[in-house]
Specification:
Elements (H helix, E strand, L loop, with lengths): L1 H4 L8 H4 L6 H7 L15 H18 L1 E6 L4 H6 L3 E3 L1 H10 L4 E5 L2 H10 L4 E3 L15 H10 L5 E4 L4 H5 L3 E3 L4 H12 L3 E5 L2 H8 L5 E4 L12 H10 L4 E4 L5 H6 L2 E3 L1 H11 L3 E5 L2 H8 L6 E3 L13 H10 L8 H15 L9 E2 L9 E2 L1
Helix pairs in contact: 3-4, 4-16, 6-7, 7-17
Bound molecules: iron/sulfur cluster (SF4).
Iron/sulfur cluster binds next to loops.
Length: about 375
């Protein structure tokens, strides 16, 4: 519960702090929601959470807002108040399609910027401006301009986990769902066999192992995924015979080599839904397992996972505050926005695969050129 509510024994619970009470009306309005989180919230804890959930739902209606909930959000956000749920690509597309005048990004800052880039007329709120990303912080727009000078004639394919100014210097963006497709597309369009993939070194290396392209990579890392290793997989298999191991492509290549399956968070969720493995380990952010466990009751989720401290800055309580006070508004400079939009739209124009794309497992690492 403490992960969900962020409660501390020396403080009031977040509902009390905001003057929200668990009365009969709240109880009635929220009783159908409790079963969605009963595996994580005890009946004693629910009265502390329910008034906040009810408050967010009321404010959403008053403001005409939608909440975009990333797969790494805690289940109270993901299951109880998120209007659209999924990975970066899904959320970017929902941001572009929704008519709602207000978007609350339950995710990190670069995601909120992406929503603003695609929906400049809408008010985009992020509940905590400090929700950053180690990967996005590893590179700036000035870095990309220098890269462009150093490798003229080589297209730049940029992971969406970057700031608006980095996207603005790029030729196409990609997500972990379509990184291989985007790199191959931009290479074809430019008539070249080399692509610069920034900023995630491991995603770039994993793409390199899955294409014939020659890849130039930046040394950025996701602090959640970089800490998994092939040795972890051996230890998990020894401790849990028969376990199915699923990995995100931000993990190092030796992890993808040893895993049973590798793909974006959507691809992982799809795999679990379709195959119903008896016992799984998801080598990605911890909330991912919690969020898909509810839809897969026959699957046992083991949890050697890592928490993203940036994603965990977003809570139901600060989503409530953001909607109540219409804070913290995310803005993007118009010149940057227009150029970043071009790169994102180049990605959104790619044909949508009928199934989430996967990385082939067991591919030996191939060399990449490191910037
Ligand atoms: S999980 Fe990794 S890539 Fe995603 S926000 Fe956290 S640090 Fe950034």
């Amino acid at each position: 519960m403490s992960l969900i509510l962020g409660t501390r024994p020396d403080r009031l619970n977040p509902s009390d702090e905001r003057g929200l009470v668990y009365d009969d009306a709240v109880r009635q309005r929220t009783e159908a929601l409790y079963p969605l989180v009963r595996d994580l919230v005890t009946p004693m804890e629910w009265p502390a959470l329910a008034p906040l959930i009810d408050g967010v739902r009321r404010l959403k209606a008053e403001r005409g807002a939608v909440i975009l909930a990333h797969n790494y959000m805690t289940p109270d956000i993901f299951r109880l108040i998120g209007d659209f749920r999924g990975d970066s690509l899904q959320l970017a597309m929902e941001a572009a399609a929704t008519d709602a005048p207000v978007i609350v990004q339950a995710g990190v800052h670069f995601m909120a910027e992406t929503s603003k880039i695609l929906s400049p007329e809408k008010t985009v709120l992020i509940p905590d401006m400090r929700a950053g990303c180690s990967l996005a912080a590893s590179i700036t727009g000035a870095d990309v301009r220098l890269i462009r000078q150093a490798w003229p004639g080589v297209p730049i394919c940029t992971y969406v986990n970057t700031s608006a100014e980095v996207k603005a210097e790029s030729d196409i963006t990609c997500t972990s769902s379509n990184a291989i497709q985007a790199a191959e597309h931009i290479a074809r369009e430019w008539g070249v066999k080399r692509v610069i993939m920034i900023p995630d070194e491991f995603l770039a290396r994993n793409v390199a192992a899955n294409t014939d392209l020659s890849i130039i990579a930046w040394r950025g890392r996701c602090e959640v995924h970089e800490s998994f290793s092939g040795r972890d997989i051996a230890e998990i298999r020894a401790a849990h015979p028969g376990v199915t191991i699923l990995a995100h492509p931000e993990c190092p290549p030796d992890v993808l080599e040893e895993a049973d399956f590798a793909g974006s968070t959507s691809a992982i969720a799809h795999f679990v839904r379709e195959r119903s493995p008896r016992k799984v380990v998801l080598l990605t952010e911890c909330s991912m397992s919690d969020n898909i466990a509810a839809d897969n009751p026959g699957v046992e989720f083991l949890k050697p996972c890592n928490l993203c401290p940036h994603m965990k800055r977003i809570t139901v309580a600060n989503i409530y505050d953001a909607l109540r006070d219409m804070k913290h508004v995310v803005e993007v400079d118009e010149d940057i926005r227009i150029r970043a939009q071009r790169a994102i739209e180049a990605m959104l124009a790619l044909p949508r695969p009928t199934r989430p794309a996967t990385f082939l497992r067991g591919r030996p690492p191939v060399p990449v050129e490191l910037i």
